[in-house]
Prior knowledge:
By secondary structure, this protein is an alpha/beta fold. Among the domains are: about 1-65 and about 120-195 and about 295-365, 3-Layer(bba) Sandwich (FAD/NAD(P)-binding domain), CATH 3.50.50.60; about 415-540, Glutaredoxin. The chain is built from 14 helices and 22 strands. It has helices at about 10-25, 50-55, 60-65, 120-135, 185-190, 215, 265-270, 320-340, 345-375, 390-410, 410-415, 480-490, 505-510, 535-540, and strands at about 1-10, 30, 45, 75-80, 85-90, 120, 140-145, 145-155, 155-165, 170-180, 195-210, 225, 235-240, 245-250, 280-295, 300, 300-305, 310, 470-475, 495-500, 515, 525. The strands form 4 sheets. Strands 1, 2, 7, 8, 9, 10, 16 and 17 form an 8-stranded mixed sheet that branches. An 8-stranded mixed sheet has the order 5-4-12-13-14-11-15-18. A 4-stranded mixed sheet has the order 20-19-21-22, with helices on one face. α12 (about 480-490) links the parallel β19 (about 470-475) and β20. Flavin-adenine dinucleotide binds near residues 10 and 205. Flavin-adenine dinucleotide binds next to α1, β2, β8, β15 and α8.
Amino acid sequence: xxxxxxxxxxxxxxxxxxxxxxxxxxxxxxxxxxxxxxxxxxxxxxxxxxxxxxxxxxxxxxxxxxxxxxxxxxxxxxxxxxxxxxxxxxxxxxxxxxxxxxxxxxxxxxxxxxxxxxxxxxxxxxxxxxxxxxxxxxxxxxxxxxxxxxxxxxxxxxxxxxxxxxxxxxxxxxxxxxxxxxxxxxxxxxxxxxxxxxxxxxxxxxxxxxxxxxxxxxxxxxxxxxxxxxxxxxxxxxxxxxxxxxxxxxxxxxxxxxxxxxxxxxxxxxxxxxxxxxxxxxxxxxxxxxxxxxxxxxxxxxxxxxxxxxxxxxxxxxxxxxxxxxxxxxxxxxxxxxxxxxxxxxxxxxxxxxxxxxxxxxxxxxxxxxxxxxxxxxxxxxxxxxxxxxxxxxxxxxxxxxxxxxxxxxxxxxxxxxxxxxxxxxxxxxxxxxxxxxxxxxxxxxxxxxxxxxxxxxxxxxxxxxxxxxxxxxxxxxxxxxxxxxxxxxxxxxxxxxxxxxxxxxxxxxxxxxxxxxxxxxxxxxxxxxxxxxxxxxxxxxxxxxxxx
Length: 549
Ligand SMILES: Cc1cc2nc3c(=O)[nH]c(=O)nc-3n(C[C@H](O)[C@H](O)[C@H](O)COP(=O)(O)OP(=O)(O)OC[C@H]3O[C@@H](n4cnc5c(N)ncnc54)[C@H](O)[C@@H]3O)c2cc1C
């Protein structure tokens, strides 16, 4: 079997990559060890705004947003003495049905995007993505196929694959991408090693059915509820808004063994219920929180992405979402090279761009993990006391939990703040990209940043107006762009020229007459046509030459 790209693993990252490649007309074969319909365990509960922007690009965002919790179920995060205990504070987040009508509720309500974040579990997302992949003629999805090994040479990669029901098959491709999860065989085969902090947290996770839990609560339920009390702290996510819950029990430093911790007793403490409360365990997945980043993301024609490339505590919901960002980046790069308009330097860009971001996000997540562990271990003994002192302790704990965690649950910085300042295919200028934190960022057209989003006069999202390739945004219609158009045409690079007129604060961000935007919505170059070497810029951003501008 022959294809353009062999993708190992049909998790969210492998499927995202296949979709992005298909967007560029590139064929892929995705091999997946699991059988179709094998249920993934409940894991990621949050689709970031950036991932939703990616799904919008693929016409999937509406379907994703219509899935998950009931449309009126609060997507808030609540801090309580127990799930059924007293509420300490609540981070407001609009229910999915109100996302576009309620622009007042919550810190993320007015984010500059057509696609705010969405809360739903990976068990609902993956089937949607599989259906979307199956609908694309460019994608061949092979379930119960296990990639065993591969060899590569200058012209391509040949992989040996065990087909569940028959003889081994061979797939020949131009590139191979390992989206094969934390235990990645591809990473090991290219000599990659995970470096970092091996175990920074141990979590007993239990997926369970508890139909009586909502009725036992003192305050309305919501998407995520943290229990903080001196006996046992943990948190639960609502999976279906009714009776299905994912419970995370954070083990203490004094509890190094999963087996030594009484799962049932802990779940009852987290819920705040007695021995007579009924629940049914559906699945358990105990896991180590790590901060591990691969020291090698590429070897020749072979790349790794997603959990294969990085594993960290999924604070701020940036495990799967960081992997989808990898796929967005690598997808258009491979798409451009295979389609024939991208040069060799584009391939170098993946490592130069995603490597530093992976390192940064892993540190944000670990830092937050440590702060939360400190907060859990400092729960005052009188937190539940019905006394004025207990009341004061609850008020203080409520403020502290809110202030710490609003950063991770409304992480604008992680969504929009990262930039590619070490890229060989971005034409930097004298300005430095603005710094960002987990929660905050400064929108900017500095090359490398996500291009500031706004709605066009006809109501469309700016990003909806981009084609599959580059977009040249022109702020002044009198500016001559024929040189750029001709240079792009000469190498076959798709380039859409868009006349835009952003107003108000966002207009002030667009201070240059021209802004060149990549397929992944990051700025590649900005400037004025009069003194620009249009051909040099186009060849630089397409990965053909090192153009110092
Ligand atoms: C309890 C828990 C909670 C989490 N919560 C969040 C969260 O809130 N937010 C967040 O962003 N992330 C979260 N994550 C992380 C998130 O689930 C992962 O980052 C995400 O699944 C990674 O996607 P992936 O496609 O890279 O890898 P995976 O989902 O692991 O998919 C890899 C696929 O490759 C297949 N495969 C492996 N080897 C082969 C082979 N040789 N041949 C063929 N197929 C192969 C596997 O069967 C698998 O389907 C959580 C994880 C856990 C454990």
